[in-house]
Specification:
Length: 391
């Protein structure tokens, strides 16, 4: 029995993970569940999955969670706060940690799971973008294994011999990340001047949380994934390409020096990547309908439009700058996306805020978590000042 901590259980990845877990009660048990503030949803999940521990990140809500669980006759330990999250990620109640918190808020628990040698299923891409070298160091020290859940990286993992080999020795020439292009594929900058959060969150292929949906619409999501791929697979920026593929059936590709290109295909449903990561190196049923290529029609591929979708170009720029530039990029993006979702920043200004913060805070070497968190705060402060001036 594999005991699984689902951090971010009330989110989109959390729901898909719990769906896969529920299909295999003989193999997996959801032993820890967490949320930020959605007490009602967390209490309901606890009623269904009977974990040993429920963590609510907002400490003000611990009492309410305990009351709801008691009223429902659910007996599990209750804890709150970010320290409780890191303790849960590294503690004895789980063998596997699904890192599915959104944003930089997931960094501490992801690092804690890596340091404790857990089997780490990484969905929270922001934590590897922010603290890539520190996360890899923690993984080495902990001796655990990281299996990517992000569908593109999971696809690449599946197309590489042994998952994460030395790319040069394995004859890999290029990693190619596919991108759906998001809801605004083919639009011009003029078309995008007045788009709303609801339009941006209406993804044509994937059903996801609102933050990642906006990132998909700006192509920042692909930019974060380029940085994630660099850290996960040790590929330099020049060996990572992005290819727009609107059908979202090819999840990514690996090109080898002999001209072979291996791809992983499947219906666009996160349960495939999650089931693969949970069961690896075995395979389990995920509840995903079989891919019917005869019925799917033509598959299209095109180069991304880096002039309209500036965020992808900025992510490559930050990766090439190195040091903590990706962390600065990520922090500025989180602040800008929050403002866009709140209706106080136009869509196209997301890239402008990110670019201005990258210019204001030139890259520095990553020393430790404390200095990284301080720089993350500095970048958020710079982004907020820009937003204030713009209003
Ligand atoms: P959602 O917004 O749907 O869910 C986020 C989860 O994180 C919720 O459980 C939420 O709790 C919790 N959370 C939010 N803020 C905090 C915080 N400050 N502290 C602790 N917990 C917090 O996000 P997604 O499931 O869409 O995405 C999760 C991660 O996975 C992201 O990093 C995303 O980029 C990545 N990812 C998502 C994919 C998808 O298909 N959705 C695909 C690939 C990667 P509450 O409900 O209480 O707010």
């Amino acid at each position: 029995m594999n005991k699984v901590a689902v951090l971010g259980a009330t989110g989109s990845i959390g729901a898909s993970t719990l769906d896969v877990i529920a299909r295999h009660p003989e193999r997996f048990r959801a032993s820890v569940l967490s949320a930020h503030s959605n007490v009602t949803a967390l209490a309901e999940l606890c009623g269904r999955f009977r974990p040993e521990l429920a963590v609510i990140a907002d400490p003000a809500l611990e009492g309410e969670l305990a009351r709801k669980l008691a009223a429902a006759g659910v007996h599990c330990e209750v804890a709150s706060g970010h320290d409780a999250l890191t303790a849960a990620a590294s503690g004895a109640l789980c063998d596997t940690v699904v890192a599915a918190i959104v944003g930089a808020a997931g960094l501490a628990s992801t690092l804690a799971a890596a340091q404790a040698g857990k089997r780490l299923l990484l969905a929270n891409k922001e934590s590897i973008v922010l603290g890539g070298p520190l996360l890899l160091q923690a993984l080495r020290a902990g001796g655990g294994v990281l299996i990517p859940v992000d569908s593109e990286h999971n696809a690449i993992f599946q197309c590489l011999p042994g998952g994460r080999p030395d790319l040069a020795k394995s004859g890999v020439r290029r990693l190619v990340l596919t991108a759906s292009g998001g809801p605004f594929r083919g639009r011009t900058r003029a078309d995008l001047a007045a788009v709303t959060p609801d339009q941006a969150c209406k993804h044509p292929k994937w059903s996801m949380g609102r933050k990642i949906s906006v990132d998909s619409a700006t192509l920042m999501n692909k930019g974060l994934e380029v940085i994630e791929a660099h850290h996960l697979f040790g590929a330099p920026a020049d060996a990572i390409d992005v290819l727009v593929h609107p059908q979202s059936l090819v999840h990514s590709l690996v090109e080898y020096v002999d001209g072979s290109v291996l791809a992983q295909l499947g219906n666009p449903d996160m349960r495939t990547a999650i089931a693969h990561a949970l069961a690896w190196p075995e395979r389990v049923e995920a509840g995903v309908p079989p891919l019917n290529l005869a019925a799917s029609g033509a598959l299209q591929f095109e180069a991304p439009d880096l002039d309209t979708f500036r965020c992808l170009a900025l992510a490559f720029q930050a990766l090439r700058a190195g040091g903590d530039a990706p962390a600065i990029l990520n922090a500025a993006n989180e602040v800008a996306v929050e403002a866009f979702l709140a209706g106080t920043l136009p869509f196209l200004a997301i890239a402008e805020v990110v670019e201005a913060v990258l210019t204001e805070l030139p890259s520095q070497t990553v020393v430790d978590v404390e200095s990284l968190v301080a720089r993350d705060g500095e970048a958020r402060g710079a982004a907020r000042r820009l937003l204030k001036r713009a209003c």
